[in-house]
# Entry
Amino acid sequence: EHTTNMFTKISNMTCVLRQLKFLNDEGQINMDTFSYDRVKEYLKDSVAGQDKDFVKALAKGYADCGEISKSWPQSTFKGNPLKEAFGKQHVFLKCMFKLEEKMCYKFQVYTFMKALWKFDPKNVDLGLPSGNKFEASVNAWKVWTETVPEEMNFMQDLIWNRHNGGDM
# Structure
């Protein structure tokens, strides 16, 4: 019964992933779904989707996830039939979800700095290592949070309820 339930769950999952066009008919990652043009089309109605640099960075990240999953050693899945069959897809999806979370965070930091501080890191050489304006924003934010006065950190902690387990 457990095997039947597991088979049903996997069949449903792969069906959904195929419907989303994440997997092709052979059950492999469909990298066309994660191309620049497709990502741009999918995000066209979002604020982030209007930013070509964001779309480019996201599509490049998806391509990197594809390369990571392709080059992942199949031997690491040995002894687990489920992982032997879907391990590389799992690696891709985990990478994809981490990428999306990080890129959304970086986009929010960039947008925050532009809106509230009128500061656009892409137009200023900060002397910090940066791959793009999103990396530059995160680096600038880290520098700022490390250099603000102790009193400001205290107020931030108080306002945002940090460092006390969430109870006030």
